[in-house]
Amino acid sequence: MVSDPHRSSSAALPKRLVALDRMRGFVVGLVVLHHAVLAYCSFGHVDRVHYALSTAPIVDPQTWIGFDLVVLINDGFFMPLLFSLSGLFVRDGLVREGPGAYLRARLIRLGLPFVAAELTLVPLAYYPSFLQAGGSPGFSGFWLATVTTGPWPSGPPWFIGVLLLFDAAAALGFVLAPGWWTGPSAEAPRLSRCFVGLVAATVLAFLPLLLVVGPRLWFALGPLAIQGSRVGLYAAYFAAGAWLGRGGGPAVAAFGQALAGRCGLRVALAVATGLTFVAASRLGAALHLPARPALALLGLTQALFCAAACFALPAVVLRVAGGRRPAWDSFAANGFAIYLLHYPVVTWTQYGLLGWRAGAVAKGLTTVAVALGASWAGGALLRRLPVIGRGL
């Protein structure tokens, strides 16, 4: 799911659906931005022994600390937000189709694109990384080694594979505990209580695992991978979205209306917690804190910021997403395709710009523009094809 993955049929609430689609589109844009500027961060390094362990597929010697902040802030909230959006209409799909048909539909909608992307787009995206690390040219040999002996990096499609697992868990939960999925249809939400609950869930789901496994360990099975410290975090946000959607479309609409009501307060809280999160990322080294307390401080401030940002960004979009926005709607409609297609465009653009001495800012902005334009155009073209278009 990145662009209406559950194909919700709640036509009775078109404004809500438009706002949600536009919000997904905006977050997909953040994903592209994140990957486009990662090559130009000051903490980057190339691992010439194991290219997949480099900090990014392409690492440029020209850097800008502003991109460090962009990556830090983005990484603090945008994937949990995508998982929570993915959970919103799980209940509608399960009730409408039944768990068996729902899961079969998700296998087609998510499983097939995941396999196709991992076999084609991901090796294509990581080939320039292999070359930068000193690998011998020859894509066919690189592709064969990737899918047999590895390493086989997951790339952005990891999200789609993990989402499919969460959908399978939701279908099982629907069978075992059907009563959990029934909620009030349009009860006035108590946002302060919801926010406190989300903060508590974020801390409990994220901080213990972060302290146990650290921030860099990934659990992987072939090309399916997930950051170890975030397993509970992503599951919690998917479950939060599913919990909110228990009452169906009217409950989601009521929550959104209430959320947009005090937009300024939510933005202020997100900015305050975001600044605290950024400060915590520097404070450990500045105060010479031991590694574990420094990591605990960083994890706690990230949890607070994540919850605040996941309230603030939807509130802002719900406030400004009204009216006609043809370009935004087009981008949102192609969001799933853009999510799948952008990564090889990003890495090959970054690789091609390695010799350009224009500075990190110019390179980063160029990569963003090329990746957004090419993946948007490519997605729109692919969605016109009869068979492929139905899956995108």
From TrEMBL:
Keywords linked to the UniProt accession: Acyltransferase, Membrane, Transferase, Transmembrane, Transmembrane helix
A Pfam family matched in the record: Acyl_transf_3
Membrane-traversing stretches: 25-45, 65-90, 110-127, 158-182, 194-214, 234-255, 267-289, 295-318, 330-348, 360-382
Segments forming domain Acyltransferase: 18-373
GO molecular function: acyltransferase activity, transferring groups other than amino-acyl groups
Zinc-finger is among the record's keywords: no
InterPro entries, alphabetized: Acyl_transf_3_dom (IPR002656), Glucan_succinyl_AcylTrfase (IPR050623)
Entry protein name: Acyltransferase
Organism per entry: Methylobacterium terrae
